[in-house]
Every structure is written in C-alpha cells, then in structure tokens.
C-alpha cells in the first residue's frame, strides 16, 4: 500500500509522504476483503499441493518403474509452476486493489487485463528482476562468508571452514527474505507503471506530469 501511495504522488516530499502513509492505512483497511480472499486462495492451493505431494510420495514408494517416477516428477513440476502462477496473479490482484480500491472480482478482471495486454514485457521484466535479485542473494552470501572468514583468520590465524559455511548458508537464508521484499516493491512499482500507461492516458493528454519518475520512465 505504501509503495502505491508513494508512486501516485507527484510531490514526494516528507510532508506528502506522511499523508501517503495515512492513506495507505486507509486503503489497506478498505482492501482487507481482497487481501483475505487472495490469501485464502493461496493457502487453499498450498493445502491441495501438500495432499497431492503425499499421494505422489506413496505412488513413488509403491511403484519402482521409470514410467511412475517420470509421472511423479512431471506432476510435481506442474504443481510447482501452477502455485507460482497463482501466487503471482494474487500478488498483482492485491496491487490492483490497492491502486483502484475495487473489490476482488473487479481487481482480478483489471489485473488480468493489464497483465495479458503486455504479457511478454511482463515476463521479461519479471525474469530480469529475478535474475538480478538472485545475483544479489549470491553476492550477499559471499560477502557474509568472506567477512566471517576474515574475522576468524585475523583472530586465530587459521582458516576454519565450518563457521564460514554456516555463515554462508545463514546469509543466503536471511537475504532470501529481504530480497523477496525488494522484489515485491519492484513488482508493485512496475504494476503501477502499467496501470498509469493503460488507464491514465487522459491525464497525459491534458498535459499533467506523469507519476513515473523520469529515469524509470526512460528505462521502461
């Protein structure tokens, strides 16, 4: 909500950002029904996947043929892909609801229309951001391990791999959650840009300044 209010604010001063924070709380309460529905759908699909995973494990244990193993592997891949797609759509529905203030059904219709209209650019932007964020996770993990190893070596004059490896894994684990938040912010800003380009062209024709920051608009 806060990112949406920040984007659709031409001033972006400290005073206006305080007002955006209040608006984000108000819009968050207004969109609480949409958030509940999307969370319920995601949780329900996750529950179904857990049940199917259990069935697939039993099938894999009972049957040792290559056909059964291939079928189990293929089904797991399909379930994982479908879950990612459902989560992606639900996240964009929530963003659309935060922008427009509409309910779940209208937000779903509007979000699907926006995403399908520029499906290739959406996939490209999503994969590009995911790639750079993954590089960020690796760099964060590597820096954490190097710092830990350097501190240990400076103190003991020995290279100790065990604490360094644990630090590497811990840094990757922590960076995963932090960078997921960064990814959510990036997706929200991009979706706001799509919304502005699609539904707010009349303001452009009237000569009003676009909401998108100048450098971001040039990049897109």
Count of alpha and pi helical runs: 9
Number of beta strands: 0
Radius of gyration: 22 Å
C-alpha end-to-end distance: 22 Å
Strand pairing plus helix content: what structural class? mainly alpha
Shape: globular
Biggest sheet statistics: none
Instruction: State the low-pLDDT regions, or none.
Output: none
Beta-strand level of the residues, as a percent range? under 5%
Mean pLDDT: 77
Fraction of residues in helices?
over 70%
Helix and strand sequence: HHHHHHHHH
Membrane topology: Multi-pass membrane protein
GO molecular function: transmembrane transporter activity
Keywords: Glycoprotein, Membrane, Transmembrane, Transmembrane helix
Main location: membrane
Describe the structure using short key phrases:
single chain, 220 residues, mainly alpha, globular, Choline_transptr-like, glycoprotein, membrane
Q: What does this entry look like structurally?
A:
The structure is a single chain. This protein is mostly helical. It has a domain at 118-220. Helices cover 87% and strands 0% of the residues. It has nine helices and no strands. It has helices at residues 2-7, 14-30, 32-62, 66-100, 104-117, 119-156, 161-199, 201-205, 214-219. α3 (32-62) packs antiparallel against α4 and α4 (66-100) crosses α5.
